[in-house]
Design brief:
Layout lengths: L2 H7 L6 E5 L4 H12 L3 E5 L9 H11 L7 E4 L14 H29 L2 E6 L12 H21 L4 E8 L5 H6 L2 H10 L8 H12 L10 E4 L10
Parallel strand pairs: 1-2, 1-3, 3-4, 4-5, 5-6
Length: 238
């Protein structure tokens, strides 16, 4: 395939994309790349809809239903915190689960109806290597991401016959505001040394994977969890 044809495949003209958590970090990069490739992007952030709140989620569904079609759904919004199990706080658990998992169920349920009707759709759920490799203090976060992978695989089977492809992208350690807020400098340095590529990932690394899965190049990949981590999961010393 020539470079010219590659460019044609990576175009999203006439495609409508909805992305949650599109105001910063990975979501902001994905939003930018879709727009640069011709898509109409509906970006959802806490500034307009708080996915942890029932009323906001209800209002978001009403807003979504005003669109005739949504071709691509990127479930990117997510939060993380460190809390050992003996210090479990139910309110924190519910807040994280509402954003990381419940909102994904609800949005996918509504938007998939449009995709089924149009016989076309691409859904990418942004998961995490926390669905593959656990760390102390991340029990709630890992639970949400393990659940997201199970959801992805099941929905992929349900929607395949409608030409709706559903996949997950699991970022490794990415140089974002969330990473810098969760980890100390010495922890980041240690993790960087454990990544075979000897660097943290960038938001562009993750966005590139999303663009591929949502593009016309992908016609048969569904139900998969694409880990983008610079080789971290497979490294012996990781």
């Amino acid at each position: 395939m020539s470079n010219k044809n590659n460019k044609l495949y990576l175009k999203f003209n006439k495609k409508t994309v909805l992305i949650t958590g599109g105001s910063r970090g990975i979501g902001k990069q994905i939003k930018k790349d879709f727009e640069n490739l011709g898509a109409k992007v509906i970006s959802i952030s806490t500034k307009n809809f708080d996915l942890s709140k029932k009323d906001d989620l209800k209002n978001l569904i009403t807003y979504i239903n005003s669109f005739k079609k949504i071709d691509i759904l990127i479930n990117n919004a997510g939060i993380n915190y460190s809390q050992r199990i003996e210090n479990f706080i139910e309110a924190d658990y519910e807040n994280l689960m509402n954003i990381n998992l419940k909102s994904v169920f609800i949005l996918t349920s509504q938007i998939s109806k449009k995709m089924i009707k149009n016989k076309f759709g691409r859904i990418v759920n942004i998961a995490s290597i926390a669905s593959e490799r656990v760390r102390e203090g991340r029990s709630v976060y890992s639970t949400s991401k393990f659940g997201l992978i199970g959801f992805t695989k099941t929905i992929a089977v349900e929607l395949a016959k409608y030409n709706v492809l559903v996949n997950a992208v699991s970022p490794g350690f990415i140089n974002t505001e969330m990473t810098r807020s969760m980890l100390k400098k010495n922890e980041i340095k240690k993790l960087t040394n454990q990544v075979p590529m000897n660097r943290l990932g960038t938001t562009k690394d993750i966005s590139n994977a999303v663009m591929f899965l949502c593009s016309d190049i992908n016609t048969f990949i569904t139900g998969q969890n694409l880990i983008v981590d610079g080789g971290f999961i497979g490294a012996v010393n990781a």
